[in-house]
Write a structure and sequence with these properties.
Radius of gyration: 18 Å
Mean pLDDT: 86
Distance between the termini: 48 Å
Strand order of the largest sheet: 1-2
Helix content: 40-55%
Number of domains: 2
Length: about 90
């Protein structure tokens, strides 16, 4: 089974993304297929979210109200610039 392991060293991006490393076995199937083959109740471990392509702008706008943006997920100057540009365009 794949396992998520927290990193011992973390930079700003890893902290912002709450990064973990994953260790995988030899099986090449998806995690969904692995869980199903083991008879595990998949809903106890995975949640699948499906969005229509037309909803992307609305979801991005809603996330910005929650303080989630390009620069909070990818904290660098390029993404800060994108956030500022998007904020100007929204006004």
């Amino acid at each position: 089974m794949p396992v998520a392991v927290p990193a011992t060293y973390q930079d700003h991006r890893m902290i912002a993304q709450r990064s973990c490393f994953t260790i995988h076995g030899k099986r090449l199937e998806s995690i969904l297929d692995i869980l199903q083959s083991l008879g595990v109740k998949v809903n106890d471990y995975l949640v699948v979210y499906e969005f229509r392509q037309g909803d992307c702008a609305k979801i991005t706008h809603q996330l910005s109200y929650l303080g989630i943006s390009q620069s909070t997920i990818f904290p660098d100057l390029d993404n800060l610039g994108k956030d500022i540009g998007n904020e100007i365009l929204d006004q």
